[in-house]
Amino acid sequence: MNDLSINTSIAYELPAVFEGAHLINGDWVQSASTFDRVSPSHGTVVSRSAEGGEAETQAAIAAARQAFDAGIWSRISGKERANVLLKVADLIEANVDRIAVQETLESGKPISQSNGEVGGAADLWRYAASLARTTHGDSHNTLGDDMLGVVVKDPIGVVSIITPWNFPFWILSQKLPFALAAGCTVVVKPSEMTPSSTVMMGELLMEAGLPAGVCNIVLGYGQPVGSLMSTHPDVDMVTFTGSTAVGKLITQASSGTLKKVALELGGKNPQVIFPDADLENAADAVTFGVYFNVGQCCNSSSRIIVHEDIAESFVARVVELSKQVKFGDPLDPTTQVGAIVTAEHNAKINGYVEDAVAAGAKLEIGGAPLPVTGLGEQFYQPTVISNVTPDMPIAREEVFGPVLTVLTFKTLEEAIALTNDSDYGLSAGVWSENVHTCLEFARRAEAGTVWTNTWMDGYPELAFGGVKQSGQGREIGRYGFEEFFEVKSIVMRVGRTRANWVSAD
User: Fold this and answer.
1) Crossing angle of helices 96-107 and 168-182, rounded to 10°
2) pLDDT tens per residue across span 491-504
3) How does DSSP assign 395-460, residue by residue?
4) Per DSSP, what are the bridge partners of residue 152?
5) Which candidate among 104, 260, 344, 479 keeps its CA 20 to 30 Å from the CA of 389?
6) Which of 298, 398, 438, 483 is catalytic?
7) Catalytic residue from among 264, 364, 398, 483
8) Displacement of CA 339 from its chain's centroid (Å)
9) Is the pLDDT of residue 219 over 70?
10) Where are the domains of the chain?
11) What digits encode the pLDDT tens for the residues 66-120?
């Protein structure tokens, strides 16, 4: 461990404890009880939030329903909606520092990453604003001289948005502006572990002039808040990002009202490395892919599939790069990898590693919790594990930590088979200078996104989502935007040309 790059605690005056309230029908609402969030990196309370229950959730849903039915947002012009979304984007950029610090304290992620996440979210809002003005349906004037058909897109209605703790501001911005651009009203529940940046978003929405009731926020736990948001008959759609297990529960809960459900769930994302690849670039991307956000990322490249001819040298290079990655105090601007979200999750990660080693896998580096001077032991060492077989749990299940598993292959067919031998299908990557290899892999890989000679590049224009147990539906891009509409066909007869069904005597 002495050869790792560790940033110890720096001197930093923590801000006052953030006090979070519900946003219901344009008002900030307290609850009788509250819950605290203790920073995973600093071990002190950094936020205190109102704990919502059935009453607050019912009120929020009622406000969203009334606002939608009244048409104060759903029936105004796309231009008017776009203007509000553009104001929000500007306000996000003006408040990056304040939001990012709070997110770092609650999540344990490095401040540099929080700054990028919050600041980058503004682009999602601007793109959604463009869609608000340019969405359209279809007309059909080929049905005969006496008929005209028009297909229109209506906002689906009230949308429940349930977001996770790992990218609370970014994932909210993958959903909320697109729902608003479509004309929907919403109820949002952030994770109880990272609630504050969502409250801050509510502040910006009010400042931007969003009408009361269009966006409502309820803080609290899955039971009863998330459950009621998934089952309530006045909710028309649920969009959820989180674990596959919880996604299945939401699908079951929502089935009673047959509401639409969009899910972005877990992943076990491979990067496949061929011998002809730019191996230095690939090794750096692998290192980034496994340690970004401490591996607590649905897109984490937690497994690599390396051609057997280069496996030993490639893994050695990843190990050397792993030693250079700066782990430690997330408030240090130079830190690249911060804390694990909870002590329980840290122990879970370690359990996967220990079980793999016991089954015959080889530790190339790491494999244990990481103590950081001044900050405790809620960190985990950079970990690379070779001699992994496809049947091991660590090769099949989402570890959600800074742990890389290494498998090897001989042929393209074997690489594709190993890629698709998974319950998940969120993303995959391929590294080769042969365009034919890349194209064949990309077309046959069972994944919602395939990166070629890169990893985790994304743009608001490109849809995001998975197949198999990685979810259903899409986010961002035009395809993600379309999730928030119902399609209606309008059939119009021109003139009095309809023949009578009942004949005159």
Assistant:
1) 120
2) 999 999 898 999 87
3) HHS---SSEEEEEEESSHHHHHHHHHSSSEESEEEEE-S-HHHHHHHHHHS-SSEEEESSSS---T
4) 488
5) 344
6) 298
7) 264
8) 19
9) yes
10) 13-265+470-489, 270-452
11) 999 999 999 999 999 999 999 999 999 999 999 999 999 999 999 999 999 999 9
Q: What is the pLDDT of residue 340?
A: 98
**Among candidate residues 432, 402, 404, the one with its CA nearest the CA of residue 416:** 432
For the whole model, what pTM was predicted?
0.97
Mean pLDDT of 351-364: 98
Residue 230 to residue 252: CA distance in whole angstroms = 9
Q: What's the whole-number mean pLDDT along residues 255-262? A: 96
- Distance between CA atoms of residues 85 and 319, nearest Å: 44
Residue 211: pLDDT over 80 = yes
| 184 assigned to active site | no
Same fold across 13-265+470-489 and 270-452: no
- Which is nearest to 49 in space by CA: 60, 33, 61? 33
3-state secondary structure 443-499: HHCCCCEEEECCCCCCCCCCCECCEECCEECCECHHHHHHCCEEEEEEEEECCCCCC
- Sequence letter at residue 441: F
φ, ψ for residue 95, nearest 5 deg:
-120, 20
Query: CATH assignment of 13-265+470-489?
Result: 3.40.605.10
The tokens for 254 are 């929502």
Beta-sheet pairing, 427-431 with 471-472? unpaired
**359 neighbors 387 (Cβ within 8 angstroms):** no
CA distances (Å), origin 327, targets 6, 331, 348, 483: 5, 11, 19, 39
- Give me the helix-helix angle, 96-107 and 196-208, nearest 10°: 160
CATH code at 270-452 = 3.40.309.10
Q: How many CB atoms lie under 10 A from the CB of residue 249?
A: 16
What is the predicted pLDDT for the residue at 1?
60
Among 153, 44, 428, 378, residue whose Cα is nearest residue 273: 428
Residue type, 102: Q
Nearest to 200 by CA among 226, 229, 228, 176: 176
Confirm whether 56 is a catalytic residue: no
Q: What is the pLDDT of residue 244?
A: 96
